[in-house]
Design a protein that fits this description.
The protein has 266 residues and is an alpha/beta fold. It has one domain: Phosphoenolpyruvate-binding domains (TIM Barrel, Alpha-Beta Barrel), CATH 3.20.20. 39% of the residues lie in helices and 14% in strands. The chain has an 8-stranded parallel barrel with strand order 1-2-3-4-5-6-7-8, surrounded by 8 helices. Helix 4 runs parallel beside helix 5. It is globular, with a radius of gyration of 17 Å. It starts with 5 loop residues before the first helix and ends in an 11-residue tail after the last helix.
Length: 266
C-alpha cells in the first residue's frame, strides 16, 4: 500500500477524489482505520472529551498528544497521521510552536500537525512550513475558542464573518498550509472556500462540497455517551460490526452519499 502524504492529498483534490478522514487515539482503532482505507487519521485534542470525559478540549496537554500520536502512528502503514497541537502549545510565540510541533513529529509520530485559527497564526504557519513541518489549518468552529464563541456554534453565517474566513483560508494557504479543516460552517461558504483554494479542504459539518470529510470515531460508531452533533451519523445503525461501520463510512464519503443535507448547515 502506498503511504498517503500531503502530495497525495493534493493529487486527490486535483482528481476530484474524496479524502476520507476519521479520528483515532490508540493503536487498535488506528489499525482498523488504516486497513479500511482511511486516508488521514486525526489524533485530535477531542480525546479530552471522548477519551477523558472532559467538557472541552482545553485541558489536553502536549504530553497527552505526544502519547496518543505515538500509539496511532504505530499502526499506520498507509494513513497519514495528523496530530492536533493542543490549546496554548503554539499561541504564545513562534518559538514555542516550533518546539512543540517538533515534539509531535519526533516523539509523537505526527506526519502533519494541525493548528486552529486564521490571521493570528499566519506567521507561525509560515515558520513551521519553512522548517519542513507540514501544517493543516482549521477554521470555522475552532473548539479551542469555545468560550470566546459562547458555545459550539456554527460560524460564518454573517457576511463579514464569511468574508474573513475566506481571507483567512487564502492567507493560511499562502503561508504554506498543506490542508485545511472547515468545521461547522454553512455549506455554501465551505464550497466557495474549497473552490478558491489550491490545497484540499476537509469538512466536518461543512456540507458535501469540501474535498474530504472527517468525523470523530466515537460519534460515528455511536459509543460516545453524550449527544453527538447534528453533522455526525451513526454508521453502526446499518452495520454488523465496527469494521463494517468504518468501511461503510469510507464508501459513503467516497461516493458522496455522506454528508447528506441533514448533516449540513445553511
Amino acid at each position: 500500500m502506498k503511504k498517503i502524504t500531503g502530495t497525495s492529498l493534493l493529487a486527490m483534490k486535483g482528481a476530484s477524489e474524496k479524502i476520507v478522514s476519521l479520528t483515532a487515539y490508540d493503536y487498535s482503532f488506528a489499525a482498523v482505520l488504516d486497513a479500511a482505507g482511511v486516508d488521514v487519521i486525526l489524533v485530535g485534542d477531542s480525546l479530552g472529551m471522548v477519551m477523558q470525559g472532559l467538557d472541552s478540549t482545553l485541558p489536553v496537554t502536549m504530553d497527552e498528544m505526544v502519547y496518543h500520536g505515538r500509539c496511532v502512528a504505530s499502526a499506520c502503514s498507509r494513513s497519514l497521521v495528523l496530530v492536533d497541537m493542543p490549546f496554548m502549545s503554539y499561541q504564545a510565540s513562534t518559538e514555542q510552536a516550533l518546539v512543540n510541533a517538533g515534539r509531535l513529529m519526533k516523539e509523537g509520530g505526527a506526519e502533519m500537525i494541525k493548528l486552529e485559527g486564521g490571521a493570528a497564526i499566519i506567521d507561525t504557519v509560515r515558520a513551521l512550513s519553512d522548517s519542513g513541518i507540514p501544517v493543516c489549518g482549521h477554521l470555522g468552529l475552532t473548539p479551542q475558542s469555545v468560550h470566546k464563541f459562547g458555545g459550539y456554534k456554527v460560524q460564518g453565517r454573517e457576511q463579514h464573518a464569511a468574508d474573513k474566513m475566506k481571507q483567512d483560508a487564502l492567507a493560511l494557504q499562502d503561508a504554506g498550509a498543506t490542508l485545511l479543516v472547515l468545521e461547522a460552517v454553512p455549506r455554501t461558504l465551505a464550497k466557495a472556500i474549497t473552490g478558491a483554494l489550491r490545497i484540499p479542504t476537509i469538512g466536518i459539518g461543512a456540507g458535501l462540497d469540501t474535498d474530504g470529510q472527517v468525523l470523530v470515531l466515537q460519534d460515528m460508531i455511536g459509543i460516545y455517551p453524550k449527544p453527538s452533533p447534528k453533522f455526525s451519523r451513526n454508521f453502526m445503525d446499518d452495520a454488523e460490526d465496527i469494521q463494517g461501520a468504518i468501511k461503510s463510512y469510507v464508501e459513503a464519503v467516497r461516493n458522496g452519499s455522506f454528508p447528506a443535507t441533514e448533516h449540513s448547515f445553511d
